[in-house]
Amino acid sequence: MSATDAAARLVEPIRFPDTGFLRLKQLLLFIPMSRATVWRRVKDGQFPKPVKLAGAITAWRAEDIRRWMQECP
To answer: For the segment 21-58, what is each residue's pLDDT rounded down to a tens digit?
Structure first.
């Protein structure tokens, strides 16, 4: 990657995906919560439940998170 490419990536805003899956690390880029708060809210039914993709791989559907963000006050 050239210096120009790297500089362009720094100013490029991160877009929330329209579809697909988000791992917890990616999810935290878009919501102002800690990992512990996400899991606590999932447990309490206040946040969308993740899906198991394989083994220990857990992710959230982008569509579910987008809907949750739109419904938040």
So the answer is: 999 999 999 999 999 999 999 999 999 999 999 999 99
Q: Give the Cα separation of 45 and 6 in Å (integer).
A: 40
How distant, in Å, are the alpha carbons of 1, 2, 17, 33 from that of 9?
10, 11, 17, 25
Number of folded domains that form the chain: 1
Of 43, 44, 24, which is closest to residue 34 (Cα–Cα)?
24
Q: What is the pLDDT of residue 11?
A: 66
Full residue range of the structural domain in which residue 47 is found? 3-71
Task: State pTM to two decimals.
Answer: 0.77
